[in-house]
Amino acid sequence: MNSKPKHTNLIKTEAKRLGFLSCGISKAQFLEEEAPRLERWLNKNMHGEMQYMENHFDKRLDPTKLVEGSKSVISLLLNYYPSEYQQDKTAPKISKYAYGTDYHFVIKDKLKLLLNFIQEEIGEVHGRAFVDSAPVLDKAWAAKSGLGWIGKHSNLLTQQVGSFYFIAELIIDLDLEYDLPTTDHCGTCTACIDACPTQAITEPYVVDGSKCISYFTIELKESIPTEFKGQFNDWMFGCDVCQDVCPWNRFSKSHNEPLFNPHPELLSMSRKDWEEITQETFSKVFKKSAVKRTKYSGLKRNIEFLKS
Predict the structure, then answer these.
(1) Phi/psi of residue 184, nearest 5 degrees
(2) What is the per-residue DSSP string for 59-104?
(3) Catalytic residue among 58, 109, 132, 194
(4) How far apart are CA 139 and CA 150, in angstroms?
(5) Which annotated residues bind tRNA (predicted)?
């Protein structure tokens, strides 16, 4: 008897029980279409100072080189769309994904539970969990698994859901039933391209990472280039513009993950509060947040850049 359908169904049912929005599965193999695209992007230096994007090129494109004996890539989506936003419309803004507890921890825990479940229910299955911190092309795998299509802003998009979700993977050495990719539903829409404050979307489906507000406010460690003064639309950590204007995000529904709820003080802070933020307040409000990545000095730099 073929156990692949049974195992696949077990995994998808458990993923849903753990709170994941959806789960799709692909065969672990070389990403043929992505290889030339990634190479072109790197050759044009669109990764800016993100040197890590140049590392492990072969592993980035082939999960069997990353996880020995791997056969399946299980892609998972976890909603983070909030029910409340920052109250002061003039205050510096934080990307919605960083409102609550750092997603790396939240998702890693869920992935461990899913892998344990697979091992208990199916037997000796080996694999690794990935959350945006290893050479894995998350969006490419999610699209290959039918969870959505990669939009013109280069984010994954899903009909009836939008794009406000995290993507994670379990790469395991078990054969499963594989899903088929979905079709592109961006059509002639150019809302994201037209709205990008720094013109980082250089052409449909291509984002120059080195021009993106998220790159400047999170990845870039030196001073922000002065030529971008006045173009940040008050974003001090990340940027949601291309997602906010996307028609598919009209369907976004708020998450039900308590750990993604923001620190009570975060939403009520005024522009003045942010401009006068102390190390103490930063440490308290962002104790478990992804914002810690910029450190206090980085966030202060970003806020100062918005002021003049």
Answers:
(1) -80, 130
(2) HHH-HHHHSTT--EEEEEEEE---S---S-TTS-EE-GGGSSS-HH
(3) 132
(4) 7
(5) 221
pLDDT-flagged residues of the chain (< 50): none
Q: Where is the binding site for [4Fe-4S] cluster, in residues?
A: 186, 189, 192, 196, 212, 239, 242, 246
Give the annotated binding-site residues: 60, 132, 156, 167, 186, 189, 192, 196, 212, 214, 221, 239-240, 242, 246
State the Cα–Cα distance between residues 135 and 63, nearest whole angstrom.
9
Residue 301, both tokens: 């730099």
Integer Cα distance of 290 and 80 in angstroms: 13
Instruction: Give the residue among 275, 267, 252, 269 at the shortest CA–CA distance from 98.
Output: 267
Exposed, middle or buried: residue 265 (CB in 10 Å: 0-12, 13-18, 19+)?
exposed
Q: Show the tokens assigned to 262.
A: 């923001």
Q: Which parts are annotated binding residues for cob(II)alamin?
A: 60, 132, 156, 167, 214, 239-240
62 noted as active-site residue: no
Task: Report pLDDT for 308.
Answer: 67
